[in-house]
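Task 17 of the worksheet. Students: predict the tertiary structure of the chain below and write it out as structure tokens. Keep your answer in the requested format; marks are given for formatting as well as content.
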Amino acid sequence: PARKENTKVILMLIFTFTALSILSIFAINPTIVTIIELHKTLDDNQFVYQQLLTKKNNLSNLQQQYSSLSEELSFLYSAIPETANVPYAIRQIESIAQQNNVTIISLSVSPVIISDPNQPVGVKTHSSFSFSIQAVGSYQDMLAFAETITDFDRMVTIESLSFVRDDQQDRLILGISGREYFKQL
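Model answer:
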């Protein structure tokens, strides 16, 4: 009977430890799975955080570069204005002529097309208007005038440049045909 009692106690202890082991595995298993999932999520979040830091630094660098270029960009934006603003362009030409001791005897501007019905809506294109100038002055002054016109703050191309001698009035006439560009809204 003592042996049966010992066997009974040993079996009871074995079943108790087995039951505790099985219950512990089932109780601990969700905790272990949760720890593994949290560790994986933490790694993913750290990766995303590093990527966001890199992106933030890149954006900061780009902002600094853009700020350093802002003065140059304003010059570029003024080179091709949003509108033709022909009166302003004419005043610039007259001012340049005056600065170079050149007298304008004629200045004409082609009609400016404000909108093109064939252009799709919402598409911005670059458009232009042509101008022609006739001016008098000394040869050197007229050369300086022609050169200065190409140094506008607006984009200007000289399509033709000519010098004609007017024997009747004993003077040299400068002829310039050019084009100024603008964005067509």
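Marker's comment: The mean pLDDT is 85. Strands lie at 103-109, 125-136, 156-166, 171-184.
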